[in-house]
Amino acid sequence: MVNEREFLADYQPAAYPAVAVTVDIVALTIRDGRLCVLLVERAEHPYAGRRALPGGFVREEALDGAALRELNEETGLTRVHLEQLKTYGDPGRDPRMRVFSVAYLAFAPLLPEPEAGSDASGAAWVPVEQATGLAFDHDTILADGLDRARAKLEYTPLATAFAGDEFTISELRQIYAVVWGEELHAGNFHRKVLSVPGFVESTGQTATRGGERGGPKPKLYRAGDAKLLHPALLRPGREEDVR
Amino acid sequence: MVNEREFLADYQPAAYPAVAVTVDIVALTIRDGRLCVLLVERAEHPYAGRRALPGGFVREEALDGAALRELNEETGLTRVHLEQLKTYGDPGRDPRMRVFSVAYLAFAPLLPEPEAGSDASGAAWVPVEQATGLAFDHDTILADGLDRARAKLEYTPLATAFAGDEFTISELRQIYAVVWGEELHAGNFHRKVLSVPGFVESTGQTATRGGERGGPKPKLYRAGDAKLLHPALLRPGREEDVR
DNA sequence: TTAATAGTGTCTTTCAGACAATATTAT
DNA sequence: ATAATATTGTCTGAAAGACACTATTAA
Predict the structure, then answer these.
(1) A165 shares its domain with A237
(2) For FRET with A243, which of A14, A48, A83, A125 sits at 20 to 30 Å CA-CA?
(3) What is this structure's pTM?
(4) Measured between alpha carbons, how far is residue A35 from residues A32, A74, A137, B96 in Å?
């Protein structure tokens, strides 16, 4: 019987078939009232010329670190909400070899024009409804990311991650409306948000001007300290997809 | 410029540092009124002799398939609810090499005595509060799995996956109580479960006898067709961990 | 001035939770 | 008979959603 040290010294990693692990990022932001996802155009085979989610191979780093690094390389963003989404590993999803992709979901508040990264000839924020025909299984990953994002708005204060440091209740409502794809009742939303403990806190300030087409100067708020919304903000009319 | 076929023909997977991907499974069941997790005792280095979550290397198969195969090898179970939990990939979590573990969560209704698997000298259902000091980062994985399971009972009919084909409302309540670790009001729970569309449906049958210490013969139900509970069954008194 | 917006008030319905009541059954 | 359990009823308060109303401001 070998002991642990001898076992590790003899261990031959190359005896196993080669696999690789990447991170791919579903980075979402809101631009011009539309929900947008960050896409790159692939410069290399496979899928050269096709649009894809930004990502790359994991190095000697933690998974979260790899995701943050890749996102930073593409956008320069560093203060974003990042969370692991799901891992995709069907054989054949990458023609080169067995590649497992750990997908991450990111929420970006403001919109610096994305910079072209090393393995991407271009990067751009694309409205999600136009983000189709992506490389690999990225259509599926994007769809899963959108599902997750929509669900998390219900029970977490994540919507504030789309807003700036200070925001109005109307801006917050627009975020919900854009992500969920349906208008929300302004009055009820306003009262609801203020009634959830820790969701937002007042800055005491007021915006310098009212809405585009009139209205009083709204009050400004910042994100509160809640990690969960209680009670939650449930999406209206979801009885259909319950079964 | 090479075309895609030439590129793939020249591609050298071995040029990248060796990594491996495993699946590890948090399989939960209820035994003797306690929430239990399936553990194996490791026969090989590293962590020989330590208890660990069942799992193994992913072969030429999909991730979900690998998880189902591993669980089946350990328990013989095949009709279980299996869902991907999270992927763990910190450098150094496995002393052999860079190993990424895709963790799965499984809910097993009945309790066949687990069989010893190929890379395990023993497997057993262990009450979760006694499942500590596991190999690798499996303590963390188990904790994440329990969090997920407790949360999913709130808004999905997953509790029925712990029950048999037919069950009473009391048995369902016991499942919630055991997983959440707190007693639930029998009367309110009863009315609530029956009021959620598609959660359970009546079999028209009645149990052959009442409770252990008396009481009328309860009616029998089976799982309904709902995929989400609406409205949800929220855990009582969770205002504390909202921040 | 006009129209849009911010913010508040009110009402109805639904639901959670506390509690009670009744019927049924194991011991 | 006693105690436990299943099931239903009642009440209160929280909360969602519909709707109305006032005040404020851009154009």
Answers:
(1) yes
(2) A83
(3) 0.92
(4) 8, 18, 21, 43
The answer to the question of residue A12 being in a domain is no
For chain A, the straight-line distance linking the first and the last C-alpha, in angstroms and rounded, comes to 55
SS3 of A147, please?
helix
In chain B, residues with a C-beta closer than 8 Å to the C-beta of A57 are: 16
**Strand C close to B236 by CB, under 7 A:** yes
Report, as ranges of residue numbers, the positions in chain B whose pLDDT lies below 70. 1-16, 110-121, 239-243
Taking the C1' atom of every nucleotide in all shown strands and the CA of A185, the nearest one is D17
Residue of B nearest to A229 (CA): B242
Looking at residue A45, which CATH number applies to its domain?
Answer: 3.90.79.10
- Whether residue B38 contacts residue B130, with contact meaning beta carbons closer than 8 Å, is answered with no
pLDDT band at A68 (very low <50, low <70, confident <90, very high): very high
Assess if residue B145 is contained within a domain. no
pLDDT in tens, A3-26: 655 554 555 555 567 899 999 999
Asked if A95 and B16 come within 8 Å (Cβ–Cβ), the reply is no
What is the rounded CA–CA span in Å between residue A175 and residue A33? 8
Quickly give A240 CA vs D21 C1' distance in Å.
34
The answer to whether residues B126 and B22 belong to one domain is yes
The mean per-residue pLDDT over the stretch A69-91 comes to 93
| Overall domain count for chain A | 2
The alpha-carbon gap from A209 to the nearest alpha carbon of chain B, in Å, equals 33
**Three-state secondary-structure class, residue B160:** helix
Residue of chain A whose alpha carbon sits nearest to that of B45: A4
pLDDT in tens, B27-39: 999 998 999 999 9
Residue B143 is predicted with a pLDDT of 98
CB contact under 8 A, A7 and B62: no
Cβ atoms of residues B13 and A101 within 8 Å: no
B161 and B132 inside one domain? no
